[in-house]
Write a structure and sequence with these properties.
The structure holds 2 protein chains of 2 kinds. Chain A is an all-alpha fold. Chain A has helices at about 1-35, 40-60, 60-85, 95-120, 145-165, 170-180, 180-185, 190-210, 220-235, 240-260, 265-280, 315-330, 330-355, 365-380, 385-410, 415-435, 435-440, 455-480, 480-490, 495-500, 505-530, 540-550, 560-575, 580-595, 600-610, and strands at about 135, 140-145, 445, 530. Helix content of chain B is about 35%, strand content about 25%. The longest helix of chain B has 18 residues, at about 185-200. The chains are: A mainly alpha, B alpha/beta. Chains A and B meet through helix 18, helix 19, helix 20 and helix 21 of A and helix 2, helix 3 and helix 5 of B.
């Protein structure tokens, strides 16, 4: 038994190596630039593909193999430097949301670039020359390559430590990590420092990817897998701490190694549960430094004028158009419009958290999916009708928001965002692995509305009525005292507390409400599609919502609706025109972030010239 | 001279707070009476703002007590302390930048009435008259519709004062009430504070770097140095105190 534990432990340590390399790069980049680089997983993926291609060209002999790995890491490093110099440098002053979305756009581009260059099949790399065998240890076989990785992780940690503590460059990196203003005061050329750190971080990710190919196949979705795990490692270890990243990588890898033996059905849940526990007990991570007095970072502020009485001509025309749509549109396009309506509600519920509450959630799909599963289970397992099922959907998501939000509101900024992501991933894992209830990967099928609501036009009108009612209610809440309390807490938590506002409590309720509205959208989606899959809880849905906010701007209430419309049309338009829809979507996102740092809504409002904003916010 | 005496509005005893190895406050005790204006002065890092943050619950004290009319404040959350009648203004004005001046007051009035939980009724008209009355009191009614994000520093200080008055405080903690305001505006601001405070018998504890403001408006002065209270008394007495001259007004003044 003991020997088994030892061998399993060593396997876990070997698995920690690549994860550590990726996470260390992510952590270094975050520490210095305060950018959460969503493209980091893509850099890892490119490292793997580059290494595969280079080894194929140079030959799989010892020289070709190792040179291939090194060159792949260097190439990814150079790519990272280019990325920093052309894209991120323009976004350091932008809200976190914009930086995240820009790097997300880069990740989309990279995914399709890989598909285009290398094709969709999984690529299995060659074995490392001289390390292809295995050694016997305590009666078990242990691959030699694992032993190599096992030693490499601490070696890289040591080198990074020497760089950070024994070189002038390292001193600057550490100074910037602890206090950005200090570096400016030292008269250091920040642009150069940031580019260099980004290059090193990218090279580490590339090396991580390159080292992974002898162990596991390269494929075009590996970036999402690794980025989510790397986020977990960085958050658990503490943002900006390389040693923390190492400890956390070991912890997570061991969790995988032993989890698969002890709780084979719970491995995914386990990882995110550990992250949630760490964040709640020690919000800054194992070795992270607690942030001092809350930093009032750049944030998009929805500066909302109180509603005018009556309905403007624009809204009246829109209402007529929507009511008459079934007469104008065919079955397919009406379906597209129905989906847009559902996602408009989803985006509006996310905007309530992000725009009104100032709480950036990376995991809003949790509530969309909770609603979808609640509606589907009510209809299929409990035999409920459409009405009760669509009541249960927001109710379940609201309760979910109460439970998960209770933890989230105790954190702030990027940590809050990470915890929301972790919770969404836990739910995703539960839906994926608890097949007895959810059908697992096969989902729940046959969730169709009854005859009176079935068919394009009928379901469209049902969705239109519910979405319109929900949006109206949400709008009322924004302009009710509750909405003001949320905005007050967002504008200045300090002042809000000093006038008797229990900031945490209102934010908690905001999570529940936003969850409830997202749950209704999810419930509608289940009946619209006739099925629910774990993807309803997945990262892409959460990101869709954030991209919609980006497109529409968070400064107005109609922004998210506009964003949902624009995003869905873009997605569908691009998807029908090309196989490489991610590439074009990514280019569009990156282009939009650069061109309109305050979203389309802000841009249009600026054109209209009737903006009532704070100073320092361009149109 | 230990003002307040029996039935003091605020009595602070043995207040202490450490940050790591540094004692930011080291056993500070004082009292403050109703309607009394007291200045808390000291060099940078003496512990003034820490003292404020402990009194209104933003920070948790390591030891000591702070009683408002006998009621212990330490250990309570900021919003609970506000409900007991402690108002606060900040060194860097903290207002809701996305809202108009009037809305800033309406939010405070809604909070006072415990009506912030209302989900559907529009907030726009709530307490509009009371908000305007307070704005008129601090001379800002003309700015009521403007966004706080575009106001001058001096006007933001007035917004803060009006917002603090919403809670009908018995004790007002003012961290540098005139910092950032133009020189002429400083005295108008302090005179306004003095008049309002006298009307309502509010006890005021304020910090201030401008010595003219301190000696012109405080009835009593407390001097902090490295977390300890080193002198206390009427402005003239404190001004003459050689220890104060030595640490606060500079070594040269101390020798002189």
């Amino acid at each position: 038994m003991l020997d088994f534990l030892v061998v399993q432990f060593l396997t876990g340590l070997a698995g920690a190596c690549s994860l550590f390399l990726v996470a260390a790069g992510l952590s270094l980049i975050f520490g210095v630039t305060r950018v959460v680089n969503f493209a980091h997983g893509a850099l890892y993926m490119l490292g793997a593909y580059f290494a595969y291609a280079l080894i194929a060209r140079l030959g799989a002999g010892p020289l070709g193999f190792w040179a291939g790995l090194a060159l792949a890491a260097l190439a990814v490093g150079a790519l990272g430097a280019g990325l920093e110099a052309t894209l991120l440098r323009r976004l350091y002053g932008s809200p976190e949301l914009f930086q995240l979305l820009a790097t997300f756009g880069v990740a989309l581009i990279a995914e399709d670039a890989v598909l285009w260059l290398f094709g969709p099949e999984e690529l299995v790399g060659p074995r490392a020359p001289g390390l292809g065998g295995s050694v016997r240890l305590l009666g078990h076989q242990l691959p030699e390559y694992d032993l190599f990785l096992l030693a490499l992780g601490p070696a890289v940690l040591g080198l990074l430590w020497l760089m950070l503590h024994r070189t002038r460059f390292g001193v600057l990196v550490r100074a910037a990590t602890e206090d950005r203003d200090m570096v400016g005061a030292l008269g250091v050329d920040q642009a150069w420092l940031f580019t260099a750190v980004f290059a090193i971080g990218a090279a580490l990710a590339g090396l991580g990817g390159a080292l992974a190919i002898p162990r596991s196949a390269a494929h075009a979705a590996m970036d999402v897998e690794v980025i989510v795990e790397a986020f977990v490692v960085v958050v658990v270890g503490g943002m900006g701490s390389v040693l923390g990243a190492f400890l956390a990588a070991v912890l997570i890898a061991e969790l995988h190694a032993f989890g698969i033996v002890l709780f084979p059905d719970l491995t995914l849940v386990l990882v995110f549960l550990v992250m949630a526990v760490v964040l709640v007990l020690r919000p800054q991570g194992l070795l992270g430094r607690a942030e001092g007095i809350a930093r009032e970072g750049p944030a998009e502020r929805a500066s909302l004028a109180p509603p005018r009485r009556g309905i403007g001509p624009g809204w009246a025309a829109l209402a007529l158009l929507l009511l008459g749509a079934p007469l104008l549109l065919g079955e397919y396009h009406l379906g597209v419009l129905t989906e847009i309506l559902i996602f408009a509600l989803f985006a509006a519920s996310l905007h309530f958290l992000v725009g009104i509450g100032g709480l950036v959630s990376f995991g809003h799909a949790a509530y969309f999916g909770l609603g979808a599963y609640a509606a589907a289970l009510a209809a299929k397992a409990l035999g409920w009708g459409l009405g009760p099922a669509l009541l249960l959907a927001p109710a379940a998501a609201l309760v979910g928001g109460l439970v998960l939000g209770w933890f989230c509101v105790r954190l702030s900024g990027i940590y809050l965002a990470m915890l929301t992501l972790a919770f969404a991933q836990i739910l995703f894992a539960v839906a994926f692995q608890w097949s007895a209830l959810t059908g697992g990967d096969n989902g729940i099928l046959g969730v169709w509305p009854p005859a009176w609501a079935a068919g394009g036009a009928r379901f469209y009108y049902l969705a239109l009525a519910l979405v319109a009612a929900a949006l109206f209610l949400l709008r009322r809440i924004v302009f009710a005292p509750f909405g003001y309390a949320l905005r007050a807490a967002r504008d200045s938590a300090l002042r809000a507390e000093a006038i008797g506002i229990d900031v945490i409590r209102w934010r908690w309720l905001a999570f529940a409400l936003a969850g409830g509205f997202a749950g209704l959208a999810g419930g509608l989606y289940a009946f619209f599609k006739g099925s629910v899959f774990p993807a309803a809880l997945g990262v892409p849905i959460s990101l869709d919502g954030l991209v919609m906010l980006l497109l529409g701007g968070v400064g107005t209430l109609s922004g998210p609706l506009l964003g949902a419309l624009a995003y869905k049309l873009l997605q569908i338009g691009i998807a029908t025109a090309t196989d490489f829809w991610r590439l074009y979507l990514g280019l569009v996102i990156v282009g939009l972030v650069l061109a309109f740092p305050h979203g389309l809504g802000g841009f249009l409002a600026g054109l209209g010239g009737h903006r009532r904003g704070a100073p320092g916010r361009g149109g | 001279m230990s003002g307040g005496g029996e039935g003091a509005l605020l009595s602070v005893g043995g207040l202490a707070k450490r940050f790591g190895g540094l004692a930011a406050l080291d056993g500070v005790s004082f009292e403050l009476g109703a309607g009394e204006m007291v200045a808390l002065i000291g060099p940078n890092g003496a512990g003034k703002t820490t003292c404020f943050n402990l009194l209104n619950g933003q920070l948790r004290a390591d030891a000591g007590s702070a009683r408002l009319k006998g009621r212990e404040l330490l250990g309570l959350a900021p919003h609970a302390i506000w409900r007991l009648g402690v108002g606060r203004t900040f060194q860097i004005p903290a207002t809701f930048a996305s809202m108009s001046v009037r809305e800033n007051l309406q939010v405070a009035l809604l909070s006072r009435a415990r009506r912030l939980g209302a989900l559907v009724a529009p907030a726009g008209e709530a307490f509009r008259d009371q908000a305007d009355a307070l704005l008129a009191r601090v001379g800002l009614l003309a700015e009521a519709g403007r966004n706080c994000g575009v106001l001058s520093h001096g006007d933001l200080k007035r917004v803060e004062l009006a917002v603090a008055l919403v809670g009908e405080p018995e004790l007002l903690l003012m961290d540098e009430p005139t910092a950032g305001a133009a020189p002429g505006e400083r005295f108008r601001l302090m005179e306004l504070v003095e008049v309002i405070v006298a009307e309502r018998a509010i006890g005021v504890l304020f910090t201030e770097h401008d010595m003219d403001v301190v000696f012109g408006h405080a009835r009593r002065v407390l001097v902090l140095d490295r977390g300890r209270l080193i002198a206390e008394g009427a402005p003239e007495a404190v001004r003459a105190d050689p220890r104060v001259r030595a640490i606060y007004l500079g070594a040269a003044a101390g020798r002189g």
